[in-house]
């Protein structure tokens, strides 16, 4: 049986390589000891939510404004279903209208909660971005692994003084976006990411 | 290439985003005075031929029944004439595009200009060159031509193809490009070094010493007998220490023992036979039926042949420029993988390979997205334990255990229950509970899976780019979480582990991703154990042998 540790701490092993060890770990980087940050599994299921910073609440009206076009389209479908039911008397046409109605309802009701669920934290070594209520994902992006940072401002965002930060890493599908940042904060994050990125740059 | 002067500090491969490297090499465009070359004048014939075959295939595949029914001599002559005209036009077009295609190699990188009406200028800076392969498709091979593919880090079609040049010139190009990619020697020096190499190679091959420096131009018309033949058969991969060589008998036996492959082939044969029998029973023999089956009739032998070709005559040797591999029966190719650029490693052992102890190894290298069986990623189609040990020892960073090979062997051969690690406890996933284990070693994260064909997915912990935790209503209910580990160009999934365990794993891995493999401590980066690079040797005066055993 080969000795195997299920969750070893490489840094401790680096610090004290066992004497007479046939296979010393070559990775003995003289790096600062960084304590592992473990996310708390909060009971409501919002992973790591207690430590994250919220994004600007102006994103709620911005999202409502941006969603108008889609909602109007769904509304037209609902009206068409109602008119169709009245004209033909077939009830299942009205049933078809329920789906767009549900889409409109969730957009109106859940947008504030969704915006409040978005959070980020510019930590010592990495940036954490979290979003979602039911299907929640938490991304950890080390500063040294960032390939590019982009600030985007759409017309609606600009009206509310907001910006969206897009961060790319080399990982497969590694593009994360962080919406709803005040412009100054987006600028601060971008310069933090590039400055810290150059300082801590890691190879592929 | 022992004569190229290198300083140890300069040889460690520069990859990813180099921290702003000022100087003459930082130029993004090649200097204008470097000479530009055209590819070999026979190129239009080879590529024009492809167009004709393509047109012909499309036309006949759709109308073959009608053509056969209305066959006359006159029609055949008209058809042949049209074909000739089409061929001439195709060759003319190819010739034009050949005339406007030029390449150049300078100390900044490789550039390729092409296009007559809309011109394109591609440029591969040397710091981004991941590997160089030489491919010889059948027709080009018969004409003594080869294609040089320069792979650059990046997604999608991130490569530059120089097609076609003479085989010997391709070898020279490969050496030159790899030389500048490692900034070991500027191309002038590499070119100057060539003649001396040639002499060395000739004298050595005449002496019959194995592992000698081959003549890159040994097959170039000279009346050499043994050395030239050997160099031709092995596509010039005769230098360096032999890592793995797959005899044809082992290749065939490995395919026969691969249950997935055999059952797939058998099932398609039976399927075709049943379809033919049914059709004949229904309405006799008619050509339309065969045309309907044509895709299958072509695809099946192609698949079988592809599997055979991917391992036929496979030889890998370690050189100063990394692992060199050669494979292929009709179309041959030689690939080059620089050691220490492995982002992910996958080992595969089908059920019946367990007794002879064979393993297949595939690697992920940033920029090489050649998913085919015969691509550069397939570094060992079917290897013995010794060959696996040598390949991994030269290519991949150590796992950090006392005995890496024994660890890998244990992880591959032991029943999943006996492996100490993280596993799902959800009753619903009743197969995964018994077959999937995630093990965190000091140097790597290892995922073991597979019921019959056992797979090991090994991700070096220093290569993790990004981590994502995903939660959903169902996971919350059954108390599990999913973790996606992002490595360059790929996502590795660790799914359905208990929430507390995966949060611990996430904490450890995110610290690794944030702190390991920084440029600021590049002297301490883990190197492949059996690495030949002088930089590694200078850092580790300890004897490198035996550490992996």
The end-to-end distance of chain A, rounded to whole angstroms, is 34 Å
Low-confidence stretches of chain B: 1-30, 184-224, 532-549
**Shape assignment of chain A:** elongated
DSSP, total strands of chain A: 7
Identify the biggest protein-protein contact and residues per side: A-B, 61 and 76 residues
Approximately what portion of the residues of chain A adopt beta-strand conformation?
Answer: 15-25%
- CATH class call of the domain at 400-526 in chain B: Mainly Beta
Output mean pLDDT of chain A.
81
Read across the widest sheet of chain B, the strand sequence of neighbours is: 7-6-5-11-10-9-8
Secondary-structure-derived class of chain A: alpha+beta
Give the CA-CA distance, first to last residue of chain B. Answer: 29 Å
Rg of chain B, rounded, reads: 26 Å
Assembly status = heterodimer
Radius of gyration of chain A: 24 Å
Secondary structure blueprint with pairings:
The complex is a heterodimer of chains A (204) and B (549).
Chain A: H1 10-15, E1 53-54, H2 59-88, H3 91-96, H4 98-117, E2 119-122, E3 126-131, E4 136-142, E5 146-152, H5 155-159, E6 162-169, E7 175-182, H6 183-199
Antiparallel strand pairs in A: 1-2, 2-3, 3-4, 5-6, 6-7
Chain B: H1 8-11, E1 37-38, H2 43-69, H3 73-99, E2 102-106, E3 109-114, E4 120-125, E5 129-136, H4 138-142, E6 145-152, E7 159-166, H5 167-181, H6 187-207, H7 226-233, E8 241-245, H8 248-256, H9 259-283, H10 287-311, E9 315-319, E10 322-327, E11 332-337, E12 342-349, E13 359-365, E14 378-383, H11 385-395, H12 404-413, H13 432-435, E15 437-440, E16 444-449, E17 454-460, E18 464-471, H14 473-478, E19 480-487, E20 490-498, H15 499-515, H16 534-539
Helix pairs in contact in B: 2-3, 5-6, 9-10
Concise structural overview:
The complex is a heterodimer of chains A (204) and B (549). Chain A is α+β, with helices and mostly antiparallel strands and 204 residues long.
